[in-house]
């Protein structure tokens, strides 16, 4: 089963980086999500409980998460939900709720904007231009150049010059 979920919460632990026996890099951390509800009697929002998840980010996402995240950070995680039952050494059973992360990002919904110094403007190279379609001097020629993939007519106006009819 492949259940994709989106979670918003706080890192409850510092990200931990390690590698599998075959050398695949991964980073894991515990994520706490809190539910809140409005209490009409008191007129206030109250906490309604905390859910805990183990989040695992693999390969390049894992490396980026390890470098960018810290305990307490508020994040949004999108990934595949996996629920596992296990048995402890004392014979009792437990249940683990895990997320194999596909994307992790900061949750900016409750964060004040921080002024960042402007990055120096870098000159940009002009994007490569597609070669111009060949134009025919015959007024009866087809407009096949307009039907070429990735091209689109700017208008359907034909402009006559002394030697050709040119689509514009």
Automatic annotation (TrEMBL):
Compositionally biased region (Low complexity): 110-121, 155-168
Keyword DNA-binding: yes
Any Pfam family hit: SSB
PROSITE patterns for this protein: SSB
Molecular function (Gene Ontology), one example: DNA binding
Gene3D superfamilies: Nucleic acid-binding proteins
CDD domains cross-referenced by the UniProt entry: SSB_OBF (cd04496)
Domain of life the protein comes from: Bacteria
Biased composition (Polar residues): 135-144
UniProt region (Disordered), positions on chain: 87-168
Keywords: DNA-binding
SUPFAM superfamilies for the chain: Nucleic acid-binding proteins
InterPro entries the UniProt entry points to: NA-bd_OB-fold, Primosome_PriB/ssb, ssDNA-bd
Official protein name in the record: Single-stranded DNA-binding protein
Species whose genome carries this gene: Pseudoclavibacter albus
């Amino acid at each position: 089963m492949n259940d994709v979920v989106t979670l918003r919460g706080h890192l409850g632990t510092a990200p931990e980086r390690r590698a599998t026996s075959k050398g695949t890099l991964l980073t894991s951390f515990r994520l706490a999500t809190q539910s809140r509800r409005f209490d009409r009697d008191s007129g206030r929002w109250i906490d309604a409980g905390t859910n805990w998840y183990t989040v695992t980010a693999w390969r390049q996402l894992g490396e980026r998460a390890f470098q960018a995240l810290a305990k307490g950070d508020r994040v949004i995680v999108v990934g595949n939900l996996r629920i596992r039952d296990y048995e402890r050494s004392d014979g009792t059973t437990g249940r683990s709720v895990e997320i194999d992360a596909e994307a992790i990002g900061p949750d900016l919904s409750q964060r004040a904007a921080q002024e960042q110094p402007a990055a120096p403007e870098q000159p940009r190279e002009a994007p490569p231009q597609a070669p111009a379609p060949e134009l025919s001097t015959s007024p009866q020629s087809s407009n096949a150049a307009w039907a070429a993939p990735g091209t689109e007519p700017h208008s359907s106006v034909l402009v006559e010059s002394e030697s050709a009819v040119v689509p514009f």
